[in-house]
Design brief:
Helix Hairpins; 4-stranded mixed sheet; alpha+beta; Chaperone, DNAj Protein, Chain A; HSP40/DNAj peptide-binding domain; single chain
């Protein structure tokens, strides 16, 4: 099935600024988050689609490449992507002239982020970059934390120590590419460098390849990687683990691992950049007479004064109790919206007391009601 346009996925126009893309992504990510839609496969697919679109449009270089070449700029198996994830324009010519290799596979808990699948990375034998989606709590994002992730990927073969050669094997310089790992193919007016078909980009040939890895110098293993998550990290942020991707062929450079952060939905707080928002209930008596309430924050409860006569829906700002600012000192603010709680079960004595209270108040102590009544008169006055 053809991929949808990334701008359409994020419900924005192609000319919008980055901030508009970020706002739309946050709104849609919250709406379709798996935590908010348990068991809904459609929402899960939509969330993945939204994350993928933001991965491209949220990066200026990738967005420019996408605007120019569309989805073709990021397809695997088009001669191999570099570490930046933006393909050389000549990749398009390789595809047109049939010089591209087969599309690589992906799967499991991680996906190939850039480059062709498990069969290889760039033309110099560099390992493929990988992507891993990691879900953390808001508390972990607030304080920062250390995480250990586990994934299956190609690592250096233990039998041959990554050389690809069996014990006693003879390693020779490739006669076709003379050790360069690449050959030049002419396509009309263009000359295109591509991986050597004889040594597969290694620059060397082995007369007796390692049995366990078939001469590749790498084999699939389960790896554990430790990550330091910085305080203040946000939804959709990317962490790069240099060399944490797939091992390169025969000791070539390993690819990188890109970890994309997703925040689990919180029971009390919603996040907007470095600010947090929450709602807390207060009693009718506290709203009318004023008082002090305890407000939960990510760093512990704080006291907040409520002025007498506070209306439901009033929002207060608790300064410095929002999210930690990433790579910066200080914190954002917490915005607390008050919900006045109305008693649902009254006994006879309480009911009579409230009736007496209403009679004593009359109409002179209901400013919002009076204002609404005046606006109604204006509406129906011809």
């Amino acid at each position: 099935m053809a991929k949808r346009d990334y701008y359409e996925v994020l419900e924005v126009h192609r000319t919008v600024e980055f901030e508009e893309i970020k706002r739309s992504y946050r709104k849609l990510a919250v709406k379709h988050h798996p935590d908010k839609n348990p068991g809904d496969e459609t929402a899960k697919v939509r969330f993945h689609e939204i994350s993928e679109a933001y991965e491209i449009l949220g990066d200026p270089e990738k967005r420019a490449a996408y605007d120019r070449y569309g989805h073709a700029a990021f397809q695997g198996g088009m001669g191999g992507g570099g570490a930046s994830g933006v393909h050389d324009p000549f990749d398009l010519f390789r595809e047109m002239f049939g010089a591209a290799g087969g599309a690589g596979g992906g799967g499991g808990i991680f996906d190939h982020f850039f480059g062709g699948g498990g069969g290889g990375g760039a033309q110099d034998g560099r390992g493929s970059d990988l992507r891993y989606d990691l879900r953390i709590t808001l508390e972990e994002a607030f304080t920062g934390c250390e995480k250990e992730i586990e994934l299956r990927k190609l690592d250096a073969c233990d039998t041959c120590d990554g050389t690809g050669a069996a014990k006693g094997a003879k390693v020779s310089t490739c006669s076709l590419c003379r050790g360069r790992g690449q050959v030049i193919a002419s396509r009309g007016f263009f000359q295109v460098a591509q991986s050597c078909p004889q040594c597969h980009g290694a620059g060397q040939t082995i007369d007796k390849p390692c049995r366990d890895c078939g001469g590749q110098g790498r084999a699939e293993k389960t790896s554990r990687i430790k990550l330091n998550i910085p305080a203040g990290i946000d939804e959709g942020s990317r962490l790069r683990s240099s060399g944490g991707g797939e091992a390169g062929a025969r000791g070539s450079t390993s690819g990188d691992l890109y970890v994309v952060i997703h925040l689990k939905e919180h029971a009390i707080f919603t996040r907007d950049g470095s600010d947090l928002h929450s709602k807390i209930p207060i009693s009718f008596v506290t709203a009318a007479l004023g008082g002090e309430v305890e407000v939960p924050t990510l760093s512990g409860p704080v006291k907040m004064k409520i002025p007498a006569g506070t209306q439901g829906g009033t929002e207060f700002r608790v300064k410095g109790h929002g999210m930690t600012r990433l790579q910066s000192h200080g914190k954002g603010d917490l915005h607390v919206k008050l919900e006045v709680e109305v008693p649902t079960k009254l006994d006879e004595e309480q009911r009579n007391a409230l009736k007496t209270f209403a009679e004593l108040c009359g109409d002179h102590n209901t400013p919002i009601h009076r204002s609404f009544t005046e606006r109604l008169k204006d509406l129906f006055t011809v």
